[in-house]
Amino acid sequence: MKYLALVYYDEKVMDRLSQQEWDSLNQECMECVAGLTESGHYITGSPLLPTDTATTVRVRDNRITTTDGPFAETKEQLAGFYMLEAKDLNEAIALAGRIPPARYGSVEVRPARELKETGNQAGGNAG
């Protein structure tokens, strides 16, 4: 089953890291991806640029509107994601625990669902 591991941290805390600390963390992330790839658990993923580069898009009454920045102010910001393959939630949680930025913030693990032509349950609660 596919699980999305969303990496969150406080950008202000990360901005205080030295260049050496930041480089070391990024090298750890690359090593983590290599290990997850080797074990067959890594599907894809990417770090994200800071929230000040984000644009939120809404469509209301067939009209597109945009807002600079993320949708909501939060203590921790979305920093990146890993799409993982795991046999169950317990394995996905164990894999997410290996993601280095979890030491600085959190990793939300959420099962992904397949979008079907028909028969999708309202709200995405299909099992």
TrEMBL record:
SUPFAM superfamilies: Dimeric alpha+beta barrel
InterPro entries, per database record: Dimeric_a/b-barrel (IPR011008), YCII (IPR005545)
Pfam families: YCII (PF03795)
Domain of life, source organism: Bacteria
All residue ranges annotated as the YCII-related domain in the record: 1-115
Family: Belongs to the YciI family.
Protein known as: YciI family protein
Species whose genome carries this gene: Microbulbifer halophilus
